[in-house]
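Today's session is about reading a structure prediction critically. Students often jump straight to the picture, but the first step is always the sequence itself: look for stretches that repeat, for charged clusters, for runs of hydrophobic residues. Only then move on to the predicted structure, which in these notes is written as discrete structure tokens rather than atom positions. Here is the chain we will use throughout the hour.
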Amino acid sequence: MVTDESQWYVQKGSRVQGPFSTNEVGRFLLLGRVRNTDRVSRDGELWEPVTQVPELIPEELLNLQSDDGWSQFLQARMNEDERQHNNTPVVQERRSSPDPAPAQLRGEWQSASHLRANEFPTSTAPTPPPASHSVLPWSLLGITLAALGVVLYLNASTGFAG
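Below is the predicted structure for this chain, in token form.
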């Protein structure tokens, strides 16, 4: 069966998925299953960043900075999410302090919003991952220092000083 609908392959790291229709790739972008750092190809050989293919980017991702644009994005995402089993709308209010995940999402697509004006970037730098504030490295440092203290104490109390 021959169709006029474009078929796209998506490259996520070294993994290639597809082919998908233009609408499917747009849906995956809305749902976060395809990221702005992923690459796409029509033939599986010539790859380009998804942000350089304006036909794939849904309108709802182009105006995330405004409250109306953010609301439209949330509504479109909810409509496309097959995991929504009931028709109860989910109300998600904006917080006075920015939520890191939406802020990161807005930042990721901010560079893609110029595609509406048919301006293509010469290069796209991947968005750096958010800073991690993990407790694990500090707890490991504490455990290491405590073990060192015990070793030094035992060494001093047994009389084996050098």
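Discussion point for the tutorial: Residues 36 and 87 are 29 Å apart (CA to CA).
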